[in-house]
């Protein structure tokens, strides 16, 4: 490995010392707790954006050096089957900060999240005596992201097909000395490190620190129109050298004619139905993995600051992501899909009371963060949450012995209602099965994958196993009345679009023509406006 130079991540000599050192959890002295309560530990949550969870264990971890993720695995636990509750930024984060499924938060797209005054787990921890601090990307409240992003979500039922993203490309910047590629993330990491070294070390009460990173999310592509989209995988030679190029797997693609109709819509709107050489695909994946390596280095700065200040031994550290990144699997990049690359997230936990070198196979999801944080803080967990505390799994306890709600379900739920997908999508993941239902459950064919036999999800076996489909669909409907939710979202989209259109007045035609789909729209603007008018006339809104 090559050193980072001044201003870079932890030096490789320092890294070697850190990785070689034992972490004396048994010697931890937790901050004093209120009388009659068990000691409460500090907690740090580092949440990045778009990191494929399969990179944190074999065989995915053979493609790129992630030393600090490996450090967490060695001194703590890695969850092998952790999932987002909605594979897009804001709805996923709304689930993580609320502990509720997406159909309960009604975070239907990247514009629609939690209300600003929603009581999060961090709010409760602060109320119960924790010193709290947040840095970096939050993105769980309403009102963010581009106009294109929300209009594309609202109009997904319109009878047209338009490219909404730039073609995925790579961009190599700087030289082997260029370490801090994603400067905004590094600035936020520096702020969190400074807070640990200057503030946390002097606290007498436990603390909860959150760091949100934008990496390894792709970068903006200026040629792509309004607010650019984000289809550029950008890194420097320094990080690209951390990638084992020969280990990169070229994903298999179905032919366009054989694709599931929702997958075809996604691939087309993401500008991925054109020709790509194997070299192009391999480069996109290599650059993505290099961006993951830079993300890992930021996690390392936090772990190193905790160790240097003596706080690591009394702090629970959690690392996760809002969703994954397809990186050209299934002829797509980005997320918005229930395939593993998009929906499978990293989840690693280490700290006092956490058994070391655990690989936990239970299915879990991001709604479990909320009750876990409250459990760490000794705060009673509300019974109406969608998630379950991870602490029993981390401590190797039988969950029905310690949870008044009984054992956690044997499934997790993920759902998606936003852009680049033309039907509300619901995924139920169990032991080896992944069941994906769409819309009303009838108008779009479901998918069923046996992940034990088909980890790349290339063969839909829904027709082959109708009994399994019926069983899983029954469970899904017991959790969420998904035909009703899908209908509600359709009407919500129409209502929001009408309100937006009316707000533009005479500027409507010019504004809608120049969103991210401008390259296609401007070829036949009247055709696409007529398609929207036809859609608006089709059904009555919910009053």
TrEMBL record:
The keyword Signal applies. This is Arylsulfatase K. It is an enzyme of class 3 (hydrolase). The lineage of its organism: Eukaryota, Metazoa, Chordata, Craniata, Vertebrata. It catalyses: an aryl sulfate + H2O = a phenol + sulfate + H(+); Hydrolysis of the 2-sulfate groups of the 2-O-sulfo-D-glucuronate residues of chondroitin sulfate, heparin and heparitin sulfate. It comes from the Eukaryota. Belongs to the sulfatase family. It is found in: Lysosome; Secreted. Its EC number is 3.1.6.1, 3.1.6.18.
């Amino acid at each position: 490995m090559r050193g980072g130079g001044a201003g870079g991540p932890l030096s490789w000599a320092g890294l070697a010392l850190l990785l070689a050192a034992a972490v004396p959890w048994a010697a931890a002295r937790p901050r004093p707790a209120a009388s009659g309560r068990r000691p409460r530990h500090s907690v740090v949550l580092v949440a990045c954006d778009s990191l494929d969870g399969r990179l944190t264990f074999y065989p995915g971890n053979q493609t790129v050096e992630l030393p600090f993720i490996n450090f967490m695995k060695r001194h703590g636990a890695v969850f092998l089957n952790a999932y987002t509750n909605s594979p897009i930024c804001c709805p996923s984060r709304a689930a993580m900060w609320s502990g509720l499924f997406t159909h309960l938060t009604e975070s239907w797209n990247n514009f629609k999240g939690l209300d600003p005054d929603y009581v999060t787990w961090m709010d409760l921890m602060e109320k119960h005596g924790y010193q709290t601090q947040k840095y970096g990307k939050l993105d769980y409240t309403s009102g963010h992201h581009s106009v294109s992003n929300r209009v594309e979500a609202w109009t997904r039922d319109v009878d047209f097909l338009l490219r909404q993203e730039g073609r995925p490309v790579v961009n190599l910047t700087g030289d082997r000395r260029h370490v801090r590629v994603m400067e905004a993330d590094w600035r936020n990491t520096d702020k969190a490190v400074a807070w640990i070294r200057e503030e946390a070390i002097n606290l007498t009460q436990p603390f909860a620190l959150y760091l949100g990173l934008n990496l390894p999310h792709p970068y903006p592509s200026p040629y792509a129109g309004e607010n650019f989209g984000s289809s550029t995988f950008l890194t420097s030679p320094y990080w690209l050298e951390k990638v084992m190029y020969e280990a990169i797997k070229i994903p298999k693609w179905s032919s366009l004619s054989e694709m599931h109709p929702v997958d075809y819509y996604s691939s087309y709107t993401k500008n991925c139905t054109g020709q790509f050489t194997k070299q192009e695909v391999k480069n996109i994946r290599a650059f993505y993995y290099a961006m993951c390596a830079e993300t890992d280095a930021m996690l390392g700065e936090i772990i190193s600051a905790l160790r240097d200040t003596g706080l690591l031994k009394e702090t629970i550290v959690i690392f996760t992501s809002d969703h994954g990144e397809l990186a050209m699997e299934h002829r797509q990049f980005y997320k918005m899909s229930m395939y593993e690359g998009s929906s499978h997230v990293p989840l690693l936990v280490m700290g006092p009371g956490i058994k070391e070198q655990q690989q936990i196979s239970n299915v879990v999801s991001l709604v479990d963060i909320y009750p876990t944080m409250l459990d760490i803080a000794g705060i009673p967990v509300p019974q109406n949450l969608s998630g379950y505390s991870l602490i029993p799994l981390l401590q190797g306890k039988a969950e029905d012995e310690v949870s008044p709600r009984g054992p956690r379900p044997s499934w997790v739920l993920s759902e998606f209602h936003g852009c680049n997908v033309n039907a509300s999508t619901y995924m139920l993941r169990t032991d080896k099965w992944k069941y994906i239902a769409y819309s009303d459950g009838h108008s779009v064919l479901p998918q069923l994958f046996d992940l034990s036999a088909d980890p790349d999800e290339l063969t839909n076996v829904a027709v082959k196993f109708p009994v399994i489909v019926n069983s899983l669909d029954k469970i899904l409907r017991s959790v969420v009345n998904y035909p009703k939710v899908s209908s509600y979202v359709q009407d919500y989209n129409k209502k929001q679009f009408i309100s937006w259109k009316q707000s533009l007045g005479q500027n409507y035609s010019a504004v809608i023509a120049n969103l991210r789909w401008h390259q296609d729209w401007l070829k036949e603007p009247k055709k696409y406006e007529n398609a929207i008018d036809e859609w608006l006339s089709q059904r009555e809104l919910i009053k």
